[in-house]
Amino acid sequence: MSRIQSQPKIKSKNFAYEHEAGKTAISKNDSLLIDSIPQLFWLHSHVCKYLNLPLRQYLGVMNISEQEFNLLHYIHPEDVQVLDDFLHQAIVVEHKFEKSCRIRNQQGEYHWFLIQAELENSPIGGFKISCTNIHQGMKIHIESLALLRAHADMLDASVDCIIVVDPDGIITHMNKSACENFFGCADLKEFGMSWIEILPQAIRKKAKKAMLDANNGKNSRFNGMSFSKDSVYYWDNVLTPVLDVDGKTQSILCVSRDVTLQYLAEQKLKQGNERDELTGLNNRRAFKEKIRKLYTNARDKKQKLAVMLLDLDHFKTINDTLGYAAGDHLLRILSKRLKQTLEGRAFLARLGGDEFGVIIPHVRDIGELNEIAQLILKQLEIPITFAGNYINGGMSIGCGLYPDDASDIVELMKCADTALTDVKAQGRGGMRMFDQDMFNAVREHSAQQNCAHQIIRNLTIEAYFQPKVCLKSEKIIGYEALLRWRDEHNNIQSPARIAAAFNDYELSSRISEIMQNQVFKQITEWLAKGLKVVPISINAAPVEFMRDNFAEIFLKRLKTHAIPAKFVEIEVTEYHLAERGYEYVIRALKKLKANGVRIALDDFGTGHSSLTHLRDYPVDIIKVDCSFVQRLSEDKSIYAIVEGLAKLGPLLSMDIIAEGIETATQLQLLREMGCHIGQGYLFSPPVSAQQAEMQLLKRH
Description:
4 domains, Alpha-Beta Plaits, five-stranded antiparallel sheet, about 25% strand, eight-stranded mixed beta barrel, 21 helices
């Protein structure tokens, strides 16, 4: 028998009772009220039992008497004992209790109800039991618990350390991996400790910031490490906020992945990526990273920071003459010496080829930089040999200083590079500090190159022609084609405005191509008109020979226009034959001459004048520089030099042309010394193609 059938009597009154035939019943008004409530209701005592209408309808017991009814008969078997114990306990302590149980409906289905039991305060005592349907909510709750258990199992299956914390950073759950790694116990069940406090001290600051971001609804990530007795472990920590329907963080999922192997592999790869394979020095990547850090430090501490860029002089010549193995040997030896010299004073890197970079932190003054530069330069004074040959060379150094010269890294590097360029332009060798005049020169250089790009793009280049005349008859015997171009106002400009373009292979070659095609087209037109065309000389910039294909390209264009070689000449300046790469110039000139193109040596006397040039090189014409012609009447030594050339020319089977003749006196002196050809404003300035055509017509 269930314990629910024996209950104490309560003296207070709660319901109104009617006595009928020895039985006590609820009043009609109370029964109507109880039947109207949606909850299932059961009043149970020795003398009074009542089932409300919703309870009868749910159970399907419309006709059962209250005396025969026992709620426990409709409770799920798994819940019967629990409910019986629960009700008995309620009687003992005389207190209201509630319990969730499953009750069977008339279709035999069990639904969850919240059963609330309260002692009835009446003379006869008993229970008031109400049952509220919570089936849908309980179903969701049970499914959630099952899902949580499944998730917990899944979390435990992960090798990552997974921790769930509340917004205050208190741990509410840890998977087995986390328990094992943090506490050495995989079966830890009790939590509630602070997540920050279990982390190594070194990463707590980053963890706090990540926690703050997660509390603000943002995903966050940071790297960390942990230590064991003999190992260091590296972790990738990801914090993901779990938001409620209002978008507020209700919990945070912390996932820590062991990335030790990946980290060590990356460090090894990084070290390899930051080392120059040939010399073992830091490479360009490491240089950029280091200067970024040192610049930040110098800026924050208001210190000076210097950058030196080093470039070996004539390194290409070493490779060309002794081979690349010799060049590599030089780089290795020099790198070793520089590393030993600068150890502890500066950061050294090979930036590529024969270029090195040096970063000097917390510089005291320029005197210190000069001292370091001299130490660097001395490293090439000590002999270096390869296969029995000395391979020492010179070195140029450009230096920029922060904050004196520049306000950031980019400008600092530009300053050092500008200073290096200036050293090389001034003859190479030594160290040069940056100054503003250099920067102005660079700006002008850049402006000239931009202008050259523009006139090429806009096709505003024009070939002008200055006559060469027979000094005796003053008749035109040739022309020199000169570059002119029109500006935005349609004014004719000289090459001086784009001088920098002739040190750039691409620009110079493109301008040369336009000029050559214009000259060749003009010759073709004049020949077609039956004019007596005279040879036209075309200037070539030194840089055009640097790819060792000048002659081939020139001859191909000549052939395309079907022009006989006797109508064109090539003019090269004297210093072509003294610069690096002169061997390319000589090869090209010999090939051109072999194909009937005459060669003129321009500006003779302004460079490294040498009779060797006249004896060994394929030169047909010597053009005496205008500076000599203009001083003929003032300087006897100049007069003697020009006179000597005029007499030497016929002996060498060369034509001597005097440039820049502007006065009748100069003309007379040149005639007296036996010079037969000249050009200058005395005869004609450079003229357009149409004007040159008119001059040729007068020759008929």
